[in-house]
Amino acid sequence: MRRTNNLLRLMAFMFFCFSAMTIVGTYLPVYFRDNGLSSVEIGWLLGVASLASVIAQPFWAYMSDKYKSIKRILVLCLVFVIGTSVILFHVESLATIAIMMFIFYCFFSPINPLGESLAQKTATEKKISFGKIRVWGSLGFAITALISGYVLAFFGIENILYPFLLVILITFLLAIKLTDINLTDKKATLFTALKIGREPKFLWFLVLALLITIPHRTNDHYLGIYIVELGGSESLIGWAIFIGVITESFVFVLGWLWFRRFHELTFIIIGGSLYSIRWICMTFVLSPESVLFLQFFHGASFGVFYLSAFQYVTKILPKDLLATGHVFFLTVVFGVGGMIGSLGGGLIIEYYGISNMYWWIGILATIGTVSFFFYRLVVVRKEEAVEDTFEIHG
Question: What is the pLDDT of residue 212?
């Protein structure tokens, strides 16, 4: 019974921590645009947030591995998130906003990756699918995006702080009740942590994943603005996110049915291919309703890519550095990807328009997908060679 309660608390935590990310990640660019900031200025602010993520996420992940506690790091970060969020939404000058964005994201950005790492560890210990836990994050993201879209449309985007505070306070209360899972008694050291960054197969994987996640993060930052420019409202932004994440949830729940049969890299290529088609189609949409239709492909692109990539990374990482490795992966592909996507996307929008931005990220995703095809040929061939050698000597 106690183990069941622990799992339920973790699922609830995933629901609300992703809900908090929805409010900030989806509506913050719209909030800044409503306050009169240009696309380039918004891009710089989102780039600052991504920079903070790149610095903070590996640090907090390493600390959680070093002290064998994800829970304590989550509680600490959430305390600071609550305090800094109040200041962030009350400052006005661009320089002050940038400073507060950096501080806020130093504590906010590690929460979801650490939660996902705890979910993966819990799934491994309980011998259940990671997707069955992670899906609650997707549901939180989807439902909150839909509800907050209507709330902000009614009360005004300037009141974004209040729904965020409500959700983040619930997340904090749930974090206090979480249970740490340690799959090994071996403590992480700085030396062993640095070894992750020197593994060639892992490094090449991260570089190629960036080619697909930069377009993904660019869309995350500017989808809301695109919908508004096409004549949609904040509530329509909520529907777009809801549709996309609900389709993603089906992939997380049912992924175990097919991931056992084929190599993870095969599904990464499939996900990347669907990404490419999706972004290029976004170039030609003429109404916000067309964007909603294309959101049905989110689960088949992001869901397949992310679940495959996370499982592949888990397979090749040492157990005593799972939190560090998981967050390092998420930091690079989504943090660095977000930084490049926000800055590059803002510049393209400013000079060429948002529809042209989607054309360029479609091309980038295509390059990444083709590159993964050749990466798979090399990696799988080496894995098969090792297995053959083992069978001969066995």
Answer: 94
Token pair for residue 318?
Answer: 């040492």
CATH code linked to domain 2-179+192-393: 1.20.1250.20
pLDDT one-digit tens code per residue, 330-367: 778 887 887 888 888 888 988 889 999 999 999 999 99
Torsion angle defined by CA atoms of residues 202, 207, 209 and 214, in that order, rounded to the nearest 10 degrees = 150
Identify the residue with better confidence: 186 or 298: 298
Round to whole Å and give the CA distance between 214 and 338: 6
**pTM metric for this prediction:** 0.74
Q: What is the pLDDT of residue 391?
A: 43
Whose CA is closest to 77, among 90, 54, 50, 59?
59
Residue 11: band (very low, low, confident or very high) from pLDDT cuts 50, 70, 90:
very high
- Contact between 332 and 214 under an 8 Å Cβ cutoff? The reply is no
The 3-state secondary structure of the chain reads CHHHHHHHHHHHHHHHHHHHHHHHHHHHHHHHHHCCCCHHHHHHHHHHHHHHHHHHHHHHHHHHHHCCCHHHHHHHHHHHHHHHHHHHCCCCCHHHHHHHHHHHHHHHCCHHHHHHHHHHHHHHHHCCCHHHHHHHHHHHHHHHHHHHHHHHHHHCHHHCHHHHHHHHHHHHHHHHCCCCCCCCCCCCCHHHHHHHCCCHHHHHHHHHHHHHHHHHHHHHHHHHHHHHHCCCCHHHHHHHHHHHHHHHHHHHHHCHHHHCCCCHHHHHHHHHHHHHHHHHHHCCCCCHHHHHHHHHHHHHHHHHHHHHHHHHHHHHCCHHHHHHHHHHHHHHHHHHHHHHHHHHHHHHHHHHCHHHHHHHHHHHHHHHHHHHHHHHHHHHHHHHHHHHHHHHHC
Asked whether 314 and 326 are in contact (CB, 8 A), the reply is yes
Tens digit of pLDDT for each residue in 238-260?
A: 788 888 888 888 887 776 666 66
Instruction: Return the ∠ at Cα 37 (arms to 36 and 41), rounded to 5°.
Output: 175
> How far is residue 61 from each of residues 54, 72, 90, 130, 301, measured CA to CA in Å?
11, 11, 30, 19, 27
